[in-house]
Specification:
There is one protein chain. This protein folds into 2 domains: 185 residues, TPP-binding domain (Rossmann fold); 121 residues, SIR2/SIRT2 'Small Domain' (2-Layer Sandwich), CATH 3.30.1600.10. With 317 residues, it is an alpha/beta fold. The strands form 2 sheets. A 6-stranded parallel beta sheet has the order 3-2-1-7-8-9, sandwiched between helices. The protein contains 12 helices and 9 strands. It is elongated, with a radius of gyration of 21 Å. It starts with a helix and ends in a 13-residue tail after the last helix. Bound molecules: 2-acetamido-2-deoxy-beta-D-glucopyranose (NAG) and zinc ion (ZN). 2-acetamido-2-deoxy-beta-D-glucopyranose binds next to loops.
Length: 317
């Protein structure tokens, strides 16, 4: 803490030029990735850890894994939901939510499924979740369109309680520490009966599934259409802010190029100085190197003021 107090995180000249541009910008895009949630303490997808160390997360996040073994896939997602609920939105989530309330022409595209932006009160109409959410559920039956959002019930059904072995205390903190740090090869996942998994209340037939985009699936059409509509609504975009995601890979790189083609200046917030956009940095762009939780509230301050209140929508459950 002392070191951050003596050394400004953001060079004052950059801060000044960025804020001057932010203040006069009317069409702003933000593109969010995992780095935004890193200082909320969320383990990354591939490093899910704990119980799941011996499973390949990529293999579980597919439609065919779900049809083969819905119990196992639900256990994995129940764990990820639980971990995401242990985490709290950080000041960057709140700062972006506040910017969305104050700047009418601000649109946010997020690759995160952790629910932290919605919990921070980011208005849903200006938050497009490219990869869905751990807290959406939808019917897995092709002919049924049932879906719900913001379901923070944990576990979602009793059978999906995170298993613990008998020798261990079951307090949340012990459980969490164990899941994060200690090999759980002695904990066996219980076999789940299909009847114990969440069932669609609409068709009463299909299993519910997590509302995330799995490998091999298309990004949600309605979300892509909303983004398209916003982008084509005007010939200009003033600014794109890329936070905690590699601006070199799809879809981030594509949106950066698209925004640039409409005149946008690019601001990158990333801990890794090498995560520059594929097209490079142009004169007039900004690279803010460091933790999003510290940098984002600071660079947005000229519009949003100080972030003080931090209500958490998941706590009302
Ligand atoms: C979440 O989904 C489960 C399973 O369908 C359901 O029992 C529960 O009531 C839902 N929670 C909320 C808050 O809607
Ligand atoms: Zn259904």
């Amino acid at each position: 803490m002392a070191s951050t107090a003596t050394r400004p995180i953001v060079p004052p000249a950059d801060l000044e030029s960025f804020q001057a541009h932010l203040n006069r910008s009317t069409r702003i895009l933000a593109l969010l990735g995992a780095g935004l949630s890193a200082s909320s303490g969320l383990p990354t997808f591939r490093g899910a850890g704990g119980l799941w160390r011996t499973h390949d997360a990529v293999q579980l996040a597919t439609p065919s894994a779900f049809s083969r073994d819905p119990g196992l896939v639900w256990q994995f997602y129940s764990y990820r939901r639980h971990m995401a609920l242990q985490a709290k939105p950080n000041p960057a989530h709140y700062a972006l939510a506040e910017l969305a309330k104050r700047k009418e022409g601000f649109m946010t595209l997020s690759q995160n499924v952790d629910g932290l932006s919605p919990r921070a009160g980011h208005p849903a109409s200006t938050l497009k979740l490219l990869h869905g959410s751990l807290f959406d559920v939808k019917c897995s039956d092709f002919f049924c369109s049932y879906s719900e959002t913001a379901n923070y019930t944990d576990p979602i059904v009793p059978a999906l309680q995170i298993p613990t072995d008998e020798s261990d205390p079951t307090t949340t903190s012990a459980l969490q520490a164990r899941e994060l740090d200690i090999s759980d090869s002695n904990v066996l996942l219980p076999e789940l009966a299909i009847r114990d998994l969440p069932r669609c209340p609409n068709c009463k037939k299909g299993l519910l599934r997590p509302g995330v985009v799995w490998f091999g699936e298309m990004l949600p059409t309605a979300v892509l259409n909303d983004i398209d509509r916003w982008i084509t609504e005007s010939n200009t975009i003033d600014l794109i802010i890329v936070i905690g995601t590699s601006a070199r890979v799809y879809p981030a790189a594509g949106y950066v190029d698209l925004a640039r083609s409409k005149g946008a200046r690019v601001a990158v917030v990333n801990v890794d100085r090498d995560d520059e956009p594929a097209s490079g940095m142009y004169q007039g762009d900004w690279f803010f190197e460091g933790d999003a939780a510290q940098i984002v509230p600071e660079i947005l301050k000229s519009v949003i003021g100080e972030i003080t209140e931090m209500p958490d929508a998941a706590e009302e459950r």
